[in-house]
Amino acid sequence: MNQKTISSDARVAVYIRRSRDEDGIGIEELLKNHRQRLQVFMNEKGFEGVEWFEEVASGGSIDGRPEFKRLLSNVQAGHYDAVAVIHEDRLTRGDEEDRGKIKNIFKATGTLLLTVDNRIIDYNNPTDLLTSGFTGLMSEYEKAQILRRFRDGKITAVQNGTPHSGTTAYGYTWDKNTKTAEVVQHEADVLRMMVDWYLKDGLSAGQIALKLNDLKIPSKRGGFWHSEVVSTMLQNDFYTGVVYYRKYKTEVDFVNDVVKYTSKLNDDPETVIKARGNHTPLITDYEHAEIIKRIEELRKYKSKDRRVRKNTYRLSGLIYCPHCGLCQGLMRRKGMANRTHVRKCLKKSTRRTPECDDTRGIREDYVFEAVKMRLQQYRDTLFAPTEPSDDNAAMNSLSRMIKAHEAAIEKARKHFDKIKEMFMNDIIDMDEMKEEKQRHSDIIKRNEAELTKLRMNKDFHDEERKEQQRKLWSSDDVERVFNNELSDSEMNDVLRLLIVRIVYQFNDEGGVDIEITYR
C-alpha cells in the first residue's frame, strides 16, 4: 500500500471522542456533529463496512478510554488498514508513554491514520513521524497550559469568594452576570424548615426526607429526597458562607481494567484554600456546629449495636428525659416478675442538667397502657367527621392552584421533546432551539417556585400531614397494637411510625403526666 494513498476497499475504523461540552450544546449533540463530519468523509472516500468507536472521556490516559483500548487491541491484531479521526490529538493526546505506545502499534501493523482535513499519517514515514511528534509535543504543552490556567482560575475565584465549580447548592442559583450564587427564596425557605426539623424537632435525615416527599417538594434535580441527600446538605458549610478549593481530592483506581474516579475529603489541610464567600449564608455558624455535633454523637455508636438496642422493648427509643431531651433506657429486672422498667435519666452529656438527677424510673407497662389509651383517643379525633367551613373551601382552592401549576410544569417538560424534534427536522436552528429551551425552563422554574410556596402553606401542610396520618393510622398493624397481637419488637416498629417522643413526669399528687409528640 502506498504511503500517501489508500484504496476505497480498505478496512477502516472510525474513532470519536469528546471530553467536555465546550459550546454548551450538549455532549450528545457534539458527538453527533463529529459523527456527521466523519460520515461525510467516509462517503467521499468510498469506504464501506466501517467500524465505529465512540466515547465520552478525557484524552489524558489510555486506561480511562475503554472504547479506545478496544480499538487499539483490534489495530494490534491487524484488523484495519486505517483509522479515521477528526484530528490527530483525538487519538494521541496524552503523556509521552501513551503516545509512544499508540505510534508503535500503528507502526508495527502498518496502520494509517486519516483525518477529515485529508491528512494521511504513516508512522513508518520519517517525515510523518517527525511532524506527528511535534504535533504531540504541542498538544501536550497546550494541555499543560490549559490545566495551569484552569487551576489558577479556580484559586483566584475562591480567593475572591466565588465557588469555582460544581453544581450550585440547593437554595441558590448561579448568576452568570454577577458571578455568584444568588438565593432562590422558596428553596431557602425549605432549607430553613429542614434545619428546624433537625435541630428543634429532633427529626433524623430519613424522617426529613419522608416529610419533604409527603409534601411533594421536589429535590434539586426534581426527584425524591433521600436521607443521604438531606444529611449531606445539612453538613455542607457552603450554607454558612464559605467557599473552598481542594476540599476534596480525586482518587483513581482500576476495576476490571476500567478506570474509576472516587472523590474523597482532602486529608491534607495545607493544600486546602478556604475563603469567605460573597454569597448570602442560609445557616449560621452556631447551627452548623450543632448539626455536626449531633451527627458526631450518632456516629459514636456502631450501627450494629444501635440496631440491637433499637426495638428490644415496646417503647425502646421513644421515651425522653423532660430536662436534657436525651433518650431514656429500658431494662428487664429479674426477680420482679421479669417486668420491663424505664430507667431514670442516666445519660452523661453536656446537655445534662441538675434536674436530670431527680428523675425517677417507672414500670414500662404503666406507661404503655397510658400511651395506648392516648393513641386510641388521638385516632378517634383524627377520623372524626368535620363540618363544612370556609377553611375547607380555601383548601379546595389551594388544591386547584397546585394542580394548575403541576399541569403547567408537565406541559413545559413535554415541549422539550418537541423542541428537540423540531431541531432535528431542521424546522428551527440552534439559536431558536436554545431560546425555546430557555423559555420553557423559565416556565418550569416559575411554576416550581409557586408550587413550593403553596405546598409550604400552613393549611396545605396541615392537611397533607393529616392525610398521611389517616393512611398510617388506618393500617391493620395499628389495630393489632391495640389488640396486643404483635411481639414487642414488631410493636416498637409500629409505634415509631406514629410517635416522635414520649415524656413523662411525676406530679405533686403522686400521679404521672405523660406528653406525646405525634408524627
Automatic annotation (TrEMBL):
GO terms for MF: DNA binding; DNA strand exchange activity
List, for all copies, the residue spans of the domain called Recombinase.
Answer: 169-301
- Domain (Resolvase/invertase-type recombinase catalytic) spans 11-161
InterPro entries attached to this UniProt entry: DNA_bind_recomb_sf (IPR038109), DNA_bind_recombinase_dom (IPR011109), Resolv_N (IPR006119), Resolvase-like_N_sf (IPR036162), SSR_resolvase (IPR050639)
User: Which keywords does this chain's UniProt record carry?
Assistant: Coiled coil
UniProt key word Coiled coil = yes
Which residue windows are coiled coil?
A: 395-471
Q: Per the record's keyword annotation, is NAD included, yes or no?
A: no
In which domain of life is the source organism classified?
A: Bacteria
Q: Name one Pfam family in it.
A: Resolvase
PANTHER family found in the cross-reference section: DNA RECOMBINASE-RELATED (PTHR30461:SF23), DNA-INVERTASE FROM LAMBDOID PROPHAGE (PTHR30461)
Protein name stated in the entry? DNA invertase Pin-like site-specific DNA recombinase
Identify the species of origin: Jeotgalicoccus halotolerans
